[in-house]
Design goal:
Layout: H1 2-16, E1 26-32, H2 41-48, E2 54-59, E3 65-69, H3 82-95, E4 103-105, H4 108-111, E5 125-127, H5 128-138, H6 141-152, H7 155-168, H8 191-204, H9 209-212, E6 216-219, E7 224-227, H10 232-235, E8 239-247, E9 251-260, E10 263-272, H11 275-292, E11 293-299, E12 304-309, E13 317-322, E14 326-331, E15 336-344, E16 357-365, E17 368-377, H12 386-401
Antiparallel strand pairs: 1-15, 2-3, 2-10, 4-5, 6-7, 8-9, 9-10, 11-14, 12-13, 13-17, 15-16, 16-17
Helix pairs in contact: 1-12, 3-6, 3-8, 5-6, 6-7
């Protein structure tokens, strides 16, 4: 009996103590006959022989540049401008400012836009769903202006929001003068900036591909036929969008996106001399990316990595899960090994809210940090009170006495 009392006393002391823990491990995560050496953009330019005045190729999730040519030259984007207009529409949908069923009227200004259009009439309204379809498939200027006016009160105020959003995205080469892309002095952007807003749209609003991948459709009960201005939607394996643009001054522009397996790419070409070259060079860039790189997922959101002890909690441990998906871009030539290092916070103790960051996993390639993911608690853990501490010790005591 004396030994049991001593054991209970020691258990009580242990429960009242706190401890800290930091774990550092280096674990091979993945290795195959691949090389992650970063491509040299100048070298890429030498063998791709891009004729377009400006071009860029990026990996969609990370934004890593795989190829670039004059990517910060300020040029006229034409209707590629509409990517920003579409982004603001999608963000308004997310906020609940509008729904896909919201009816949008047509103003005199919208109906008189000219250029690419579906000939909106001032007496009609279309739903946001129909407007998006017309903007994404046939680059309708009238629908773009109608949406801008509906969301901001006027096109001018909408363009102000476009420029504000551009600054937030780091689009420092960009000045928007209108929401549609018809040539206007000072309306300029770069292939780099277009890749940024394309990435933002596709990454955070993937449902937009429900519209950008439409090849043929119709509006007004079949009276208005729509055929996508982006020919890659029909001809390129894995194409997901995104937007064409052309005027006599801007020449031929395209932001082209595609996904194969876990790898998603965005290729932008500006001032291609002909429509054929616009599409062929976007295809060339995408082919280069898919043939040269692969994307390896190293973490999946909400997957359990391990459990850790919790001090002063109503339970003794909590599972750590990945806060986000994470992956790394790898080149398909030489062998390389990705390793991970797990670091846990010190003094993990209750209370802990679900989603609280309790550590992180860093991923390295050749000792260079290439990705980092937070580890978060997968459940709430309450702090022990005197009452539940007494109940806990009592249960342990009874177990010892049995």
């Amino acid at each position: 009996m004396k030994h049991k009392i001593i054991a209970i006393f020691l258990l009580f002391i242990t429960l009242l103590n706190t401890y800290s823990m930091a774990i550092y491990t280096t674990i091979p995560v993945w290795s195959e006959n691949t090389d992650t050496t970063e491509v040299n953009a100048d070298t890429a330019s030498d063998f791709l022989n891009i004729e377009s005045e400006s071009a860029i190729l990026i990996e969609q999730s990370s934004g890593k540049i795989l190829y670039e040519k004059n990517s910060h030259d300020k040029l006229r984007p034409a209707s590629v401008t509409k990517i920003m207009s579409i982004l603001l529409i999608m963000e308004a949908l997310d906020r609940g400012d509008i729904t896909l069923d919201t009816q949008v009227p047509c103003s005199e200004k919208a109906s008189s836009m000219g250029g690419s259009q579906i000939w909106l009439d001032q007496t009609e309204t279309l739903s946001v769903h129909e407007m998006l379809k017309a903007i994404c498939v046939v680059s309708a200027n009238d629908c773009t202006v109608a949406m801008a006016e509906y969301l901001a009160g006027s096109e001018e105020l909408f363009v102000q929001k476009m420029n504000e959003r551009a600054k937030e995205l780091g689009m420092n080469d960009t000045t928007f003068k209108n929401c549609h892309g018809i040539d206007e002095d000072g309306h300029l952007t770069s292939s780099y900036d277009i890749s940024l807003m394309s990435k933002e749209l596709l990454q955070n609003h993937p449902s937009i591909t429900n519209y950008t991948t439409i090849w043929m459709d119709n509006l007004r009960d079949g009276k208005s036929e729509l055929v996508n201005t982006n020919k890659l939607i029909r001809t390129y394996d894995g194409a997901t969008g995104l937007k064409t643009g052309s005027t006599s001054l801007a020449l031929y522009n395209l932001s082209a996106s595609a996904t194969r397996g876990d790898l998603s790419l965005i290729a932008v070409v500006l001032r291609a001399p002909t429509p054929k070259i616009r599409f062929s060079e976007a295809k060339l860039l995408l082919d280069y990316g898919f043939n040269t790189y692969s994307y390896k997922k190293v973490a999946t959101k909400d997957d359990i990595l391990q459990s850790v002890n919790v001090n002063k909690g109503t339970v003794d441990s909590v599972n750590l899960v990945f806060e986000n998906d994470s992956g790394v871009l790898i080149k398909k030539s030489d062998s390389s090994e990705i390793t991970q290092e797990i670091t846990l916070n010190e003094n993990i103790e209750a209370p802990i809210a679900k989603g609280t960051s309790l550590g992180k996993v860093d991923y390295f390639l050749n000792n260079e940090l290439i990705s980092s993911v937070n580890l978060v608690a997968d459940s709430d853990i309450s702090k022990k009170s005197l009452l539940n501490l007494f109940d806990y010790i009592s249960s342990k005591w009874l177990n010892l006495l049995r």
